[in-house]
């Protein structure tokens, strides 16, 4: 196993950081690693907002659900879908197609994961902040995003001040299908639920007693940010 794979498999979300800053050379490498990621049809439809203003950080932490690490992390990056640059080049561009919004979401995930892996390879840690979409319009206004540009998620980066365990994932036999879609292996899910119960029971903080199945299906039975489609539509995205 090489060092790249070791870094990938050792991933943990880090939410507590030291006060040590990330130097400019490290940050430049992280950003360049993100930019080097695959881009659908080389459209390159992502912009990153680096938030360094303390008051904006504080506001974003609150808008994301009072996640204090948004304010305290050494760096906070916001990943945005961005067709404004293309519209500026050619006003005949049609960013309203839902396919183009999907491309933006996919490309942002690929770019951000490159950034995070680069950071982790340097001994840094981070966590994704989807909570920015709790108040997408307010985040949009705070960051002064133009039309055809929309917030997707944030990322905290810094030197870890915690050492959490690697969280167990679903087994490959559940996720990987061969040649056609296979029915769910409920026994494999039951075993995974037990693994997760043991994992949560062994954590020093944020212990839980619900299984993975109970947690995830419970969440999916709830309303899930119904304001997102109107927000995207208002930005000229995902309209048809």
From TrEMBL:
The keyword Flavoprotein applies. Pfam families: Nitroreductase. SUPFAM superfamilies: FMN-dependent nitroreductase-like. InterPro entries: Flavin_OxRdtase_Frp, Nitroreductase, Nitroreductase-like. Transmembrane segments: none annotated. Keywords: Flavoprotein, FMN, NADP, Oxidoreductase. Residues 9-159 form the Nitroreductase domain. The keyword Flavoprotein applies. GO terms for molecular function: oxidoreductase activity. Belongs to the flavin oxidoreductase frp family. This is Oxygen-insensitive NADPH nitroreductase. It comes from Vibrio sinensis.
